[in-house]
């Protein structure tokens, strides 16, 4: 067993000041590195994290109650992500380098030579999530994308896994330093008040956050209230509804229902992409689903705070007059078995303020509809979502309209799949309208997550030797660029 | 003379509700058009505005006190901008279409087929500026980029040119409608309280604003306070400092000083890119500059509110104990001649809270330095700027460091030019850290301004016929796309 008795004290106000000053001092040096140099640092961090797996995984298991295989897989995802961002940095199109050469005949009057690229914002404060202690925490997606962008990172450690945060931070900081990164480029700080101070700190340039709606909203408001407001990228909550057509149910009902049970119970229902609602036709036989769910093993939730939030939300759902409890989950010695509920579409719409709210943990709500038109109606009533899923068959008349409405509501729209499990790829979006996120223009997963930590700068008539290398005529970095509105000839 | 007696009443709350409902209803139709269809609408609006020049220009002159040549030039810029966005829409790379095909061997585990593109946000509310009644107002850059993105636009008319706003709006709305755009895609509303309501309106998806720091900040805070926060793109204030090295002054002092006088008096000093501060070596002869400025003609400011703000700011500057008045501008029958002030770099830094604030109107401050190191020091003390300019010679030792610091402070960095006059191009940035803007990631001028009104959506495993055309295998729209992280082979 790992040691759980040692306590970690909150970072002092002076300590945070020192960390932020060091991050700011590191910013121009780190941001000014060549792509290959920064990529090498990201790869070194990945390698050292992989090498520390046997030390880190047990700490993660002890602090998060997640099983070993899950922790090892998540760490692999984390280091894969760092390496993918290293590739992104080297490839260089993320800089959006563009050159408009001087043009005396430009339609609105003579145009000077203007050259644009993206530059790093400066120190980024990252609030990790409890449910993914590796991939969405200390060295997770926000950290990887901010470092890739060239921004120093200060992580506010999640109180659910402080020892893992500290140790992960040590490994990453040492790896970056060993690879030549400047002092101050990465640090971990502790304490809730420290987190508030970090959002308000004058040297902070942006914030990445993964967590609850109330917590994220409070920090969002704080960031907006600063004398100098800064971008706040909060990934908050999502219901992740799944819409099953009659035809899909008829063609593969058993597979749909067991896939649903797998998805909503994955990680004890503690995924931000957990399907919280499944819409199926009235008359769908739910006995096998209920038996399946009732037979699932109990598991410990992440921590006391998650458990309390789950118990409160669950009581509200199970006690609601329009819900029927199909499977009543139970807690034994802190382990929970999953709960399955049912209502109908009309009741869902009538009580949307309660029933369309996320309940983080092992529970989900089956909603029966009488008319497929109700699927479109429920879709239209949704708030912003990370994901929305359609289970349908070719030729389903409702599918196209459903996809159109869900495109307006969600960052990711799935067909005949399950929302849990977000692949880290170039074309991924893990985002969406509020309250899925506080910043609808962006994703927190996938290579385009880097865009959150960059801003455009244009150089007008600056001589070649004084231009950043990315914008010089001879393109010494070999970047993909646009010249006068079109891709530059190789 | 044009009729200035007719009054325009504020839009009622119910009237705004109707406009916003119509905009929301138009959003999916307008956003779902093919690129060529939306481009044709933008071109039709440009053509009809050009055709209405002889009607619109006199209204603009009467309401803004700007001369005819300036108004005609600005209208030409406005319609050029609409046509450039039409090209941008047709070219299609702004959609950032990306396809990652399914990959069972993907490094973090099997990857499904995921396809990403940008989609319009929904209805955008635009607050135009008074100082550019065409190019930054009703049919200006915010409107053009939002329409190009596929978003309906509701313009809150600037009170400085209500009749021009109304008539411009009529021309644009009719042109869009004649070209086949859905009802509700463009409207103009009136009244300050209407503007506040529009920012808070549940159907509003984003706001574009050009104006003062206090006004913009108040609306920014309102947008952030909504139950569903929305992006607020405010372009607020800027000092636009110009740093002149000893060598530049020695080599071409006369040209630098007369260029400065031209730039800061352009449009009666009512450009957001007006150089408010010019740093020159101590001992620089300022007599010719003072004579030049003193000889400049008087001109009427935009409106009563601008005049009042200018008088207050000017009194603060001229009455400050560390400033010397080189040329005292005077008002005669409402027309102002320019004011020129002087101080030294140490005093500027000591009283930066007053002296580094924008004073909108015909005045500027010459700052003398004893040591070129003070240029870097002043640059480091700046808040966010739209522009920063270096006047220097090849081989100037301070230039590289100055450019590096200014890159952190400004959206556009100029070399041996003047900041007034912002070309509309692909690589332009008209933006910068707060308070230059409230949204440091973006520009309000240039084709990338479209990015402000788009959000990413990813489709996972969606069958070909149900995918948006932009993401289908056969690429029916002929878009530039990225496939598996690299540009798609043509």
Question: What are the main properties of this structure?
Answer:
homodimer; 490 residues; alpha/beta; Aldehyde Dehydrogenase, Chain A, domain 1; Aldehyde Dehydrogenase, Chain A, domain 2; seven-stranded mixed β-sheet; five-stranded mixed β-sheet; 15 helices; 39% helix; 18% strand
Largest sheet of chain A: 7 strands, mixed
- Overall CATH architecture of the largest domain in chain A: 3-Layer(aba) Sandwich
What name is given to the CATH topology of the largest domain in chain A? Aldehyde Dehydrogenase, Chain A, domain 1
The CATH class of the largest domain in chain A? Alpha Beta
Task: Give me the number of helical elements of chain A.
Answer: 15
Number of individual domains of chain A = 2
Weakly predicted, low-confidence segments of chain A: 1-5
In angstroms, what is the radius of gyration of chain A? Answer: 24 Å
First-to-last CA distance of chain A: 57 Å
Q: What is the average of the pLDDT values of chain A?
A: 96
CATH superfamily of the largest domain in chain A: Aldehyde Dehydrogenase, Chain A, domain 1
